Amino acid sequence: xxxxxxxxxxxxxxxxxxxxxxxxxxxxxxxxxxxxxxxxxxxxxxxxxxxxxxxxxxxxxxxxxxxxxxxxxxxxxxxxxxxxxxxxxxxxxxxxxxxxxxxxxxxxxxxxxxxxxxxxxxxxxxxxxxxxxxxxxxxxxxxxxxxxxxxxxxxxxxxxxxxxxxxxxxxxxxxxxxxxxxxxxxxxxxxxxxxxxxxxxxxxxxxxxxxxxxxxxxxxxxxxxxxxxxxxxxxxxxxxxxxxxxxxxxxxxxxxxxxxxxxxxxxxxxxxxxxxxxxxxxxxxxxxxxxxxxxxxxxxxxxxxxxxxxxxxxxxxxxxxxxxxxxxxxxxxxxxxxxxxxxxxxxxxxxxxxxxxxxxxxxxxxxxx
Length: 369
Ligand SMILES: [Zn+2]
Prior knowledge:
Blueprint (H helix, E strand, L loop, with lengths): L2 H8 L2 E2 L11 E9 L6 E9 L5 E3 L2 E2 L1 H10 L1 H6 L6 H21 L6 E5 L8 H5 L3 E6 L2 H9 L3 E4 L12 E7 L8 H11 E12 L7 H4 L6 E2 L2 H10 L2 E7 L10 E8 L5 H12 L4 H28 L5 H9 L16 H20 L5
Parallel strand pairs: 6-7, 6-9, 7-8, 9-10
Antiparallel strand pairs: 1-5, 2-3, 3-4, 4-11, 10-13, 12-13
Helix pairs in contact: 9-10, 11-13
């Protein structure tokens, strides 16, 4: 039995109220998703809030499960190994630099203290340090933290729910994909609000809600919530942040399917003001629309999977630029988005084949619902 399966047996799943509006009324958006490594699917309930349209994993494991999981297993399950390659290190450094470049380009910011929220080994901090910033980071995964410390980075082992930093001590927090993993988003955002200075900025990368690939991969056990531009704005407003910009720009690298939200620290509203005025102001996602969208997407991915397998069987070449040209020309009605944005093309090409095969098989058995 895998370590993850053993871990899940120790904990039970609980229903939680909506993280945005506290409502306890949900509809099931999807019943199956990825429960372990790529291609390993099983029951995974994603719910949509009937009041505000927020999508989250619900029920989910009780909080203590996540600390256990992230400390020991997360990066191993998600990436196969916790030892980073030199290519990965270079990319991470570039990504950190690209975020800083984007912030410098759009806003007048001066070097200060940057917190890398869920930093892994902290390679994203290097470009900031080279530009005169003091960079601090934390991560719940012990192996990653040790690795970063070996190269002299200021990294703590910790979780977003309890930050080991003083009040008003951080100028910019860079959170690259970690707020979807955090188990208690309310406590995590409250902690960020506490440690950021008055004029502090919060830069968040999250997975776009435009789902390009398999819905069974998009909805996976590593993500506790699935943002939209509107739902992240609502959530931020609830915990005292105001959105400055929320974009789908390719800030870190070409062809990625990320969205980004930049927010500044504002006043924490009381819940009544939040749920009346702010709710009205920002608007909510429509749960009906979310259910229709996912249903159409499941069918669409089925068709695309079949087309992709035909394409794969015709073009087993490992020549990435050739495959890219074909896909960009719209061959088989597929697009380059299907496999772009990854480092190891050959591995991704194989993986997409495996995902397509499993998807078709599960769909035919009625297990993509
Ligand atoms: Zn809600």
